[in-house]
Design brief:
This protein is mostly beta strands. The chain is built from one helix and eleven strands. It has one domain: Jelly Rolls. Strand 7 and strand 8 form a beta hairpin.
Length: 152
């Protein structure tokens, strides 16, 4: 490869790579707002959502596979967990769904098929703060789903 070809390739890659990063889940964006204390979430809280999106997680640095939107479906403020309860997110969907969560400490969690074809993530001694939640699908199609938030 000539110097000119290598230079052109390097320039093209530097232009393309930021575009790939923009096409991945972005916890800097906000989803529909949820606000629960540990006590409030001790009773299951359900929220309807359209699962899926155009972002293929296999092309992103976040864990997992399947299709989600760039912005989270939900952004949740979690508070009052002095008792150190576990926080659980689970999805009931009309298709094969996946679940991606970014927790209050910026840790990523992914699950697919924990309960049949429905995902579940349980975070022990869940930290208080902001959680971003993506409800995706295993394939590129969209479907109806429900996010359930509960503490244990």
């Amino acid at each position: 490869m000539s110097f000119v070809t290598r230079t052109a390739f390097a320039v093209a890659m530097s232009v393309c790579l930021p575009a790939v990063a923009l096409a991945c889940p972005d916890y800097g964006r906000n989803g529909a707002g949820l606000n629960y204390s540990s006590d409030q979430a001790y009773s299951p809280r359900a929220h309807s959502v359209t699962a899926g999106g155009s972002v293929n997680l296999s092309n992103c640095p976040q864990p997992g596979h399947g299709y989600v939107a760039t912005a989270p479906d939900f952004t949740m403020q979690f508070s009052g967990n002095g008792m150190g309860r576990a926080l659980e997110f689970r999805v009931e969907g009309s298709c094969d769904t996946v679940l991606l969560v970014n927790d209050a400490n910026a840790n990523w969690y992914f699950n697919d098929d924990d309960i049949g074809v429905d995902p579940r993530i349980r975070i022990s001694r869940a930290p208080e703060g902001i959680y971003d939640i993506w409800i995706g699908t295993y394939d590129p199609s969209l479907c109806s789903a429900r996010l359930i938030v509960e503490t244990f």
